[in-house]
Amino acid sequence: MISARFEIIGSNSSLETLSLNKICRKLGYRLNTVNPLCFCFNASSVVESKKCHPLLGYRAALVMSPVLGYWKLRGLAQPIRLLLEFVGDKYDEKLYDRNDREKWFKEKYSLGLELPNLPYYQDGNLKLTQSLAILRYIADKHKMLGSTPEERATISMIEGALGDLRNGVSRIAYNEKFEELKVDYLKNLPTTLRMWSEFLGDKPYLHHSTPSHLDFMFYEALDVLHYLEPTCLDAFPNLSQFMHRVEAIPNIKAYMESDRFIKWPLNGWQASFGGGDAPPS
């Protein structure tokens, strides 16, 4: 099912609400609310959801929910998912499984993406690729990107450092010599984690007193590191507490307990670390 919003222009009558229920049933839609100004329902198809229907002399239009497209794994999309869940934005996912590579490459250049790649995010007429661009767009909509040049620069600095943290693991995760490279990586990891522990200090979150996209980038990086070396956070209790704090956010907790949450794989299925069909025992 494709989630959508049914926006009614010029409607304020309970009689119109009743009639709209009948019309939607005939069209194959199911209403989830009886708000006369904005009806929510599941559209039976993408094509049908793009139509406008004249209802009782006023105009009605279907508005698609945003769509996040990515592989059926965590990877670059997981911080985006966590941010969307936190802010409560409704969205649909287009998930490509491990056997869908040909399907994706057939669709890649037919989706209207200017720089086709995964993940992609479509919100109305806006079509974005690149995970950080998507994160920043959603964060900006929810006023998380700062109000001064100094604050925005600080946020950009943290974004870059978080990218380095995550990419450090990715560089060895896909290498055939992963086990050999892991030894040297873990030798240097405490220095990196100490830097982040000192940066976080006694703050609840990285930059704001409330969560932002930065915290979901940080959480995902720390969780991947925890899979890599389960004891790596033992010497940094504030980092462990940070992870528990994020997991306890009501929207995040509900998401992680739902069947929509992807626990594994962390990386592409072919990865030496974080791939495959099941996490290590």
Automatic annotation (TrEMBL):
Superkingdom, natural source: Eukaryota
Organism: Paragonimus westermani
UniProt keyword Transferase present: yes
Record-linked PANTHER family: GLUTATHIONE S-TRANSFERASE, GLUTATHIONE TRANSFERASE
Subunit field text: Homodimer.
Protein name: glutathione transferase
E.C. code: 2.5.1.18
Family, as annotated: Belongs to the GST superfamily. Mu family.
Cited PROSITE patterns: GST_CTER, GST_NTER
Molecular function GO labels: glutathione transferase activity
Catalysed conversion reaction: RX + glutathione = an S-substituted glutathione + a halide anion + H(+)
GO annotation (BP), single: glutathione metabolic process
Ranges where the GST C-terminal domain occurs: 148-266
Enzyme class: transferase
